[in-house]
Design a protein that fits this description.
Layout lengths: L3 E2 L14 E5 L8 H5 L3 E2 L2 E8 L2 E5 L2 E5 L3 E5 L5 E5 L6 E7 L1 H5 L5 H14 L3 E3 L5 H13 L6 H23 L7 H17 L6 H8 L3 H12 L3 H19 L4 H7 L5 H10 L1
Parallel strand pairs: 1-3
Antiparallel strand pairs: 2-9, 4-7, 4-9, 5-6, 5-8, 7-10
Helix pairs in contact: 3-5, 3-6, 4-5, 6-7, 7-8, 10-11
Protein name: Transcriptional regulator, arac family
GO molecular function: DNA-binding transcription factor activity; sequence-specific DNA binding
Pfam family, one: HTH_18
Length: about 280
């Protein structure tokens, strides 16, 4: 339904490293038009660090207006489309990296999860930063290192760790969220979200998810409430409705077919729930 692009698809040529890329937003026009003009998915994470200019980013039916000194995070698998303001040149950086790149480094996987998953759930993927934020310094150093004739992955990963850690610091400052979760909670919640992503259309109960996460139903309920301030049923319903919106807009399936596809047993009930949302 949606084309899922690798990082190399965005440049149309072989990269220095298939799992990492950084470049200036001033060079965005040189990317393949199909990659930026049609809604698509990524097989990687994408971070926009905008110093000057403005743009509109549509992510899964949510519209975000990006402006000066904004940082914008796009999770892998999100359907999105960037619309540039043709009257203004974008200045800043775009950083792309895969989950494998993080896993094969000293960067704690929980750090990326806190930034990308937890922040997007509790707040929004758009962050306001200071005009002279350290993020610009780290991005500049990352670009300089990436442009070296001999690429040092160790240096890139070390700088990326500093960059992501500074992103987390900015999130805390911007939202007053202290991210006080235990490693076990973060690990369990990530596993839970992965399970929802692959099973949202199935009729699984709280007990089913708790068993797969290897915690009690009470622990799972409390963890979901603590981190996302909602319930299991709401998370599953929202995921089903998101997929139904994608199918309605980008497929030729009928309403009944979409209802069954996303896990509703009765199309009439699906229509009732969809209208309420």
């Amino acid at each position: 339904m949606f084309t899922a692009y690798s990082i190399e698809d965005f440049v149309g040529q072989k990269l220095k490293h298939k799992d990492f890329l950084i470049h200036r937003l001033e060079n965005l026009d040189y990317l393949p038009p199909q990659s930026i003009k049609t809604p698509h998915k990524h097989l990687f994470y994408e971070i926009y660090l905008l110093k000057e200019g403005s743009a509109i980013h549509n992510v899964d039916f949510n519209t975000f207006h990006i402006k000066n000194n904004n940082l914008f995070i796009i999770n892998e698998e999100q359907v999105h489309h960037l619309e540039k303001n043709v009257s203004q040149e974008l200045k800043g950086y775009r950083i792309l990296f895969t989950k494998d790149f993080i896993n094969n480094s000293l960067i704690p996987s929980n750090l990326l999860f806190e930034i990308v998953y937890l922040h997007n759930i509790r707040y929004q993927p758009l962050i306001s930063i200071a005009e002279h934020s350290e993020l610009y310094t780290y991005a500049h150093l990352l670009l300089s290192e990436y442009n070296q004739q001999t690429l040092s992955l160790e240096n890139i990963k070390a700088l990326l760790f500093l960059f992501l850690n500074e992103v987390k610091r900015n999130i805390i400052s911007d939202t007053n969220d202290d991210f006080i979760y235990t490693n076990n909670q973060i690990r369990s919640y990530k596993l839970f979200l992965d399970l929802v992503e692959t099973n949202y259309y199935k009729d699984l109960s709280l007990e089913d998810y708790a068993k797969r996460v290897n915690i009690s139903t009470r622990q799972l309920s409390r963890m979901i409430k603590l981190i996302s301030n909602t319930t299991l049923n709401t998370i599953i319903l929202n995921r089903r409705l998101l997929q139904s919106k994608r199918l309605l807009k980008h497929s030729d399936l009928s309403i009944s077919e979409i209802a069954y596809e996303v896990g509703f047993l009765e199309p009439s009930y699906f229509c009732k729930v969809f209208k309420k949302k």
